[in-house]
Fold GTP cyclohydrolase 1.
Amino acid sequence: MSQKLDSIFRKVLISVGEDPEREGLLDTPKRAAKAMQYLCHGYQTNLEEVVNGALFASDNDEMVMVKDVELYSLCEHHLLPFIGKAHVAYIPTGKVLGLSKVARIVDMYARRLQIQENLTRQIAEAVQQVTSAAGVAVVIEAKHMCMMMRGVEKQNSVMSTSVMLGAFRESSNTRQEFLQLIGRKS
Ligand SMILES: [Zn+2]
């Protein structure tokens, strides 16, 4: 597969008007193929593998929050990066997730071709599924290279998406508490 991707990137170089034989580009198809595979490695794993049993019994029923999870993804419309942060919270009902696992879940879905809205929902539903939480909230704030480098060329716009499930949807107090904790008062 990587061999084939190499030859596709070689064609891309020719298509944009480059000479793939010039010195600086000789290894570029191979490197680009490797990079692309890395940026899409989320397809090579699944939720069960990522969580890997790291669920622990707990009688804590207060909000658990992981803030500022770095996020690197590729938009499915232009194959250009979008980069930002995810904030994830849930209200446990007997089980809590290992600390690093929230970040791993974010990464698994981010390292696929995405639109930000779907990414936000997939993370929320995955956390809901593995923890059986009473509620899950996910907010993603990201800058999209496809807006910054092309098209409208808006350098400073940050796109914000959120998905609220269960208690975060039903109770405005719970939702407000979460939004305050991530520094958004509204
Ligand atoms: Zn795009």
Observations:
- The chain is about 40% helix and 25% strand.
- The CA atoms of residues 6 and 30 lie 5 Å apart.
